[in-house]
Amino acid sequence: MTSTSIKTVGVIGTGVIGASWTALFLAKGLRVIVTDPAPGAESKLHEYLKKNYLAIPNKIATPENYLQNLTFVEDIDPYLGELDLIQEVSKMASQEGVKKVLTTFQNGPERLDFKRRLFAHLDANTPEHVLIASSSSGLPSSELREKPISDIDWASFQPTALNTLSGDSSHPKTGDENVTAACEFYRSLGKDPVIVKKETAGFIANRLQAAVCAEAYSLISRGIVSAEDLGKGVLSAKLAQFDSNFMVLDKTMTSGLGLRWAFSGPIMTNLLGGGGDFGHFMDHLGPALKSWLDDMNQHQFNMDSTTEKENLKEKVNQLVSHVDIEKTEKNRDTFLTGLISVRSEI
Amino acid sequence: MTSTSIKTVGVIGTGVIGASWTALFLAKGLRVIVTDPAPGAESKLHEYLKKNYLAIPNKIATPENYLQNLTFVEDIDPYLGELDLIQEVSKMASQEGVKKVLTTFQNGPERLDFKRRLFAHLDANTPEHVLIASSSSGLPSSELREKPISDIDWASFQPTALNTLSGDSSHPKTGDENVTAACEFYRSLGKDPVIVKKETAGFIANRLQAAVCAEAYSLISRGIVSAEDLGKGVLSAKLAQFDSNFMVLDKTMTSGLGLRWAFSGPIMTNLLGGGGDFGHFMDHLGPALKSWLDDMNQHQFNMDSTTEKENLKEKVNQLVSHVDIEKTEKNRDTFLTGLISVRSEI
């Protein structure tokens, strides 16, 4: 199966991630059969699709056939034979919605258990050539299925329609030809798939992100970063709205590390820092790096401590109380569209 | 002292960081007195300045007075009375160069020891109102000076002329008025200063970066990421040159996390992930985050192990052997200029 043979996609779950996958599939001219048993899911999805059409880069579909190719169904079972690929996003949907995807699973309160039963059902009722892709933030697929044939886990990033990275992770039993076919498919949608060689909790991106979050929580909890800001600096008024006065830690990322990481990853950044020689970098800056890591290990944020977590929540909530989430999301989409365009020009 | 009163800046050390500070100061119309005893430092600096003029955003100086305002001196001591601010960058310069900044320190082979003696000398010979700023990647300034009056540590990021973030860290004994004056000055140059409330090894940005590097080293060492890539995806040919086929781990950053972090830092990203509620995010995704962090702690890259480090160097060197560093740096500058422009528009 090649990417070009994938014409009809099934989407199970239309939470934020599922809806943005649906928007992307439709914008690329695919036929999409969608299900989500959550109350009001269909109208919410339509609202999302209309709002986000313009933000999708390199669209193929016109505004008209963008929506015409969508079929929302109450039960996807009768359609399983028509699909070329299933994008399972139920973990990302609300728990209430997930529980009702298939009536047989209405009594499944635990997500992993629910997912296992959902995949067993899909395995039993889907032709063997159909690629089954699961959006997960870090669950290795061998925990979901005993005998996988063609499933691949993808850690999606928001907004799915904009970010270049589709996701990662391959089940050890997933055939290479299926990985290749899935990569070709996602690449044809403008995604940039990353393959994980060995199953790893959190795959790659979420582990890197977790590392940053853990240290950020520690720095905020320990009072290392200031809550106050001394001005808007070079930020535009709109950007300053959510970046000044309460997000000093975040500014370290948005005005520094993030800008650089949007161009060069950690290894290339090390390489540039070492004048083109990674060994030189390690010999030269390794000892400093080690001393910071030792200090960080000594001051790890304790994810087991309810007190630490509640204190952190209180601190953060005070800082972010005035954030306009909808406006921020809109600004993010504008920014990412511009950024991806800059990237594609160099 | 306000930022507008800073007209003449001294730069000690003209390695990569010192040279880019010099370029920025000159481009902003300041008079700059520079010293670096390394052989060929003056001609190398001139070469750097000419090459990088165009890449500096929002220049005030014309190409002519950009270079006219520069004075390269063998010994900066006679000029200390004329300076409004000293940008000390000797740690970033080559060790050989550092040792010879002041003849009295020629026998100082240890950087920390050298820095201490340099600052003691500057303290003794500089008028009290002069701000002394030290570029350091993570040395708390109380380790450098016993009685600081007006010094601030700044962790610079490459390229200094482009990145919005100047740096961070304040000495606990540094007066608030000096911190404010320094922030105003750097902000007037287009930087976005971050204040560290309590001295911390590695400040903020380098700790976040270290967290990512440590996990990246672990993932590469453990063979989790694939060395091969399946194609160039959406990357342009130029970008693919250093991004495909050998930098799968880096792609996770440049095609995903980095793009997002260029817009929203870790806390805002959590907030968006929690639908505007950090507490919801923590309750909802905290357990998954914890499970990944536990797994990461179990598989930490051992910075003490020579074997692990040598194996990593070998793996990375194989991957990056064909990288054209000069071209990559040029692409980075083009990309960051465009990115900062997109940022300022939203």
UniProtKB/TrEMBL annotation, chains A, B:
Coiled-coil regions, chain positions: none
Organism of provenance: Penicillium cosmopolitanum
Official protein name in the record: 3-hydroxyacyl-CoA dehydrogenase NAD binding domain-containing protein
GO molecular function list: L-gulonate 3-dehydrogenase activity; NAD+ binding
Classification via InterPro entries: 3-OHacyl-CoA_DH_NAD-bd, 6-PGluconate_DH-like_C_sf, 6PGD_dom2, NAD(P)-bd_dom_sf
Domain named 3-hydroxyacyl-CoA dehydrogenase NAD binding: residues: 8-198
Pfam families linked to this entry: 3HCDH_N
Protein family per UniProt: Belongs to the 3-hydroxyacyl-CoA dehydrogenase family.
GO BP annotations, alphabetical order: fatty acid metabolic process
